[in-house]
Design goal:
single chain; globular
Length: 505
């Protein structure tokens, strides 16, 4: 049964609902272990559901266990991202260890983007049809199995066999990524109150780039030279151990939903997968988000991968490229945190999202004009600008997506955006290589040389390419995405459900 109590005052009437998942729990036992009430969220509803003009505040119970659910999703995102990025910082060592080409080592990261496109639809279907717990449990098993397959290949004597198992392991872990990426909005809507959702979404969403940073650091610290094969073994073991630890944590503690919903919209019945697709197809504001937001996410992924590639002809080293990434990610965390709080306080999703796109476009333009020799400070500054606004746009855009498409399941609406972003990422990476300029030859990236000339240390004469057309492509696609967002108009449908007096933006 549902247990309810009312409290009256001279100014308002509060209605408190307390019950379990199935609505048939005794009033005296509504706060199980890990479900202790920690606070209450005030929303609104029509009095007695009659639809009359009297509109009263309503109080929803929030549970401490929501922070544990958030922590589990964050750790899963970090673990999966560590597996994804693990070979990228140690490409030369991995190339020798597996006795393969640089392309095959690059493919270990690219496979995540490729696999995420078809399996992204499966992930959104699982979350939409079977719920958060089933989807997350399946994904965490796939992530742990993939990491363990990679580590198991280390015991095989042949290079080819190791590479095959490493690639299979990457592919299995990649299948899990769409579910992890789709989960933050669904988790926030299922467990968090109306004024907590953007912050919860922010923390769960930026866990992926945090995992990339941690994974890069782990690989760099454990593999200390081009022949440090023992370091690769330890790296694979650490990745597998983290994945198994988070698997156990998830299976033991992750819950489907709290005993009582945290908001009025969380009580509402969501559309089925089929009905949700039909609803999205006829929603022009949503497809504007798919294109613009997908381009924005893909641009960040692509830039993170090609910083060294597009700047090395201007005498910037791999260390300089790492500074670009650190600046973008580090300042991005600050931007995401500030915007998460700002959105929860103001609920101004679309204006803030538009501002983020304008700011990020300015950063990309600044990067284009700064990509010249002896402009390290300006390049780092442009990366800070890109990171601050682009990372800030991530949680805001995901929440805006939910507001635009309610009552479509959160995993479905955001999942299609992630699929679009992975598709754009593959296109951008391929186009970047296709748009490289004429080759230039340098010794130590600074001394011009000719590859066929005869002089001491001729083998140090290496080929580099400038990428002005590729970086210009980044400017153009960012401008197109920003234009789409600036002209976008939408209703906050979830907020309208919770606050019927809310107007269109």
């Amino acid at each position: 049964r549902n247990c309810s109590s009312t409290m009256s005052s001279s100014s308002e009437k509060l209605v408190v609902n307390v019950g379990d998942d199935d609505g048939d729990r005794d009033c005296s036992d509504t706060e199980p272990l890990l479900g202790t009430v920690t606070s209450r969220s005030v929303s609104h509803d029509w009095k007695d559901g009659s639809g009359d003009d009297e509109y009263v505040p309503r109080e929803f119970v929030l549970y401490k266990s929501r922070y544990l659910m958030l922590a589990v999703i964050v750790l899963l995102q970090i673990s999966n991202a560590m597996v994804w990025i693990s070979f990228a910082p140690i490409i030369k060592t991995a190339q020798t260890y597996y006795n393969t080409s640089a392309f095959m080592i690059d493919f270990q990261s690219m496979i995540f983007m490729i696999v995420s496109i078809p399996f992204g639809f499966l992930g959104t279907y699982l979350l939409n049809s079977f719920g958060l717990k089933v989807g997350v449990n399946i994904a965490c098993v796939m992530n742990a199995v993939g990491a363990c397959i990679r580590f198991g290949g280390d015991f095989l004597p042949e290079h080819r066999s190791r590479l095959i198992l490493a690639t299979i392991g990457q592919g299995v872990a990649a299948i899990a990524q769409p579910i992890f990426l789709d989960s933050p909005t669904l988790l926030a809507a299922t467990w968090f109150g109306e004024h907590e959702r953007a912050e919860a979404n922010m923390l769960a969403s930026i866990a992926n780039p945090i995992g990339i940073a941690i994974g890069s650091l782990v690989s760099g610290l454990m593999v200390t030279s081009d022949t440090d094969f023992e370091g690769i073994r330890w790296m694979l073991l650490v990745n597998a151990a983290v994945a198994v630890f988070v698997l156990v944590l998830t299976l033991l503690f992750f819950k489907k939903k709290p005993p009582t919903p945290p908001s009025h919209s969380a009580e509402e019945e969501h559309l089925s997968f089929k009905e949700g697709i039909k609803h999205l197809v006829v929603n022009p504001a949503y497809w504007c988000l798919v294109v613009a937001f997908g381009i924005g996410i893909a641009l960040i992924s692509t830039l993170s991968s090609v910083f060294a590639q597009v700047t090395q002809a201007n005498a910037y080293t791999s260390n300089d490229a790492s500074y670009f990434s650190i600046a973008m990610v580090g300042v991005g965390f600050i931007g995401a945190g500030l915007c998460g709080v700002l959105v929860d306080k103001t609920q101004a999703f679309l204006p803030i999202f538009k501002g983020c796109f304008v700011g990020a476009t300015g950063g990309v333009v600044m990067f284009y004009f700064s990509n010249k020799p002896d402009q390290l400070g300006l390049l780092i500054g442009s990366c800070c600008l890109i990171g601050f606004f682009a990372f800030a746009a991530l949680p805001v855009g995901l929440e805006l997506c939910v507001e635009t498409t309610f009552p479509v399941n959160e995993g479905l609406s955001t999942g299609i955006i992630w699929i679009a972003s992975q598709t754009f990422s593959v296109i951008f990476l391929t186009s970047t290589n296709a748009l490289k300029g004429e080759p230039k030859y340098f010794i130590n990236q600074t001394i011009p040389c000719a590859p066929n000339a005869t002089y001491p240390h001729w083998d140090d004469c290496l080929e580099y390419h400038e990428y002005p057309k590729a970086v210009l492509m980044f400017v153009i696609v960012t401008a197109i995405a920003t234009a789409c967002i600036l002209f976008m108009k939408t209703e906050y449908k979830r907020m309208k459900e919770e606050h019927p007096d809310h107007k269109k933006e």
